[in-house]
Every structure is written in C-alpha cells, then in structure tokens.
Amino acid sequence: MASRTSASRTDGSPLADPTHYRQIVGALQYLTITRPDIAYAVQHVSQFMSSPSDTHLEAVKRILRYLKGTLGHGLSLYCSANPSLLIAYSDADWAGCPDTRRSTTGYCIFLGPNLISWSAKKQRTVSRSSAEAEYRALAYACADTIWIQGLLRELRYPLPRPVLLNCDNLSTTYMAANLVFHSRTKHIGLDYHFVRERIASCSHQVQFIPSTQQLADVFTKGLPTDRFQRLVSNLVTSPASSLRGNVRELHQ
Question: Quick one: 154 and 112 in the same domain?
C-alpha cells in the first residue's frame, strides 16, 4: 500500500463481476502464511470482498507487482545463542479506517531471531484515544505469546525468561506498569487487567522502544518505501539479506 493510503468502500466504480477480485485476494490470503510483508495490504483489500471497485482492484494489482519483484523473499529459521527469548512488537493505527474509524492492530513475535507469529487485523470496537488503541494491540500480542508459551511447554521447552512486549507508545507503557486503575481506563478494563495480571506474575515485561525500531508498523499502515524496506528486512529474508544480522543490529 502507498504511504498513508487507506481506501474507502465508496472509492471508485463497482466491478461488474467481482469474482476475479475475490479469487486473487483469496489466493493472497494464503500467501501471507509465509509473506508477512504483505499482511497489512492483503488485510486491507480483503475488507472489500463483498463489493469491490476498480480502485480496490488497482490496489490488488499493486500487491501483485510487488510480489513479482520480490519472488526471493521468504521466512528463514536460524540457530541462536538465545533461542529461549520470546519478543513481541505491537502497534496500532488509531482510527485508520475511513469508513468505521476503527483502529488496526499489528504485532509480530520472535523466538530468538526467528519470526514465528504475526497479525494485521482491524479492532472490533472504536478506540477513543491512541493510547487505548495501542493498549488493545498490546493485549492481542500478549494473548498470542501466552498461547506460544503453552505450546512450548507441551513440547518440553519452557521459557526461562519473561516475554518482552515492545511498544512505542509511552502512555501504554505507563498504563501497563501502573497498579492504580484510573477512571479514564475503565472502558478498557478487560484488556487492562489481562495485561496487568501477566506483568504482576513476572511472565511478561513491557518495554518502550522508539518508533524507528517498531517492526509492527509494517502491519498497521502504509509506509514510505525506505522505511518499509528497512523494517521488512527484519521480517523476511531475500538473497541479499540475513534476518539474524538485521535483528541483531536493531537490538544494539
């Protein structure tokens, strides 16, 4: 998707036969299993399956052109000195949908240097502030890491260190660390108590990171080409890049 582009349901003229559009988008949804770099774009065009327009079809063609130029991209698994470190990055694009003003949640989870889970999806309710949207995204990422922890325990591979949740919103990190339940956060009480419970049990830690290091930005919004390519280099590999090296540089 183009930088800061967010298509609306009313854009363009309706397609006479939406079957072709639905077939392409359906195939792209399967491709996101191994191509996290297109997760946001595919999630975005999937919203218009019921009544796509020529504008939406042009966005789909742009995804196909991007894929044609990045055929060598994909996921790789590496050995690591710290394979038991589980790290999550969460982000949200507040009120990014022009039709519903719902926010988009994005997160990605690494086990050591390896990307093992990611998501780009619209939140179920409208958030009244960016902090609320970011906190909901943090809760979604936290829930996914809990499932991964359970899976690793079943495989007899328990994690000796707390899960690290990275967020680039200061208000969200303060809310997660504050034991006091303020009246301003009552409307997100379930997510608030869910995350706080994990932090209190020392199974998770919330850490603030600069927006320049927020890998989950790729899953929430369209980005400028340079920034998109830099972040994607930490998610997928290409013949000329190394995921392990890029992640190490990012954490330095």
Answer: yes
In this model, does residue 244 exceed pLDDT 60?
Answer: no
Mark out the alpha helices in the chain (DSSP H runs): 19-31, 39-45, 54-69, 130-154, 170-177, 189-200, 225-232, 243-251
What is the tally of structural domains in the chain?
2
What is the pLDDT confidence band of residue 222, given thresholds at 50, 70 and 90? very high
Q: 111 with 182, same domain?
A: yes
CATH number reported for the structural domain that contains residue 157 in this entry: 3.30.420.10
pLDDT digits (tens, 9 = 90+) for 40-69: 999 999 999 999 999 999 999 999 999 999
Nearest residue to 41 (alpha-carbon basis) of 89, 84, 2:
2
pLDDT-derived band at 249 (thresholds 50, 70, 90) equals: very low
Tell me the residue range of the domain where 173 lies: 76-236
Domain membership of residue 165 (yes or no) is yes
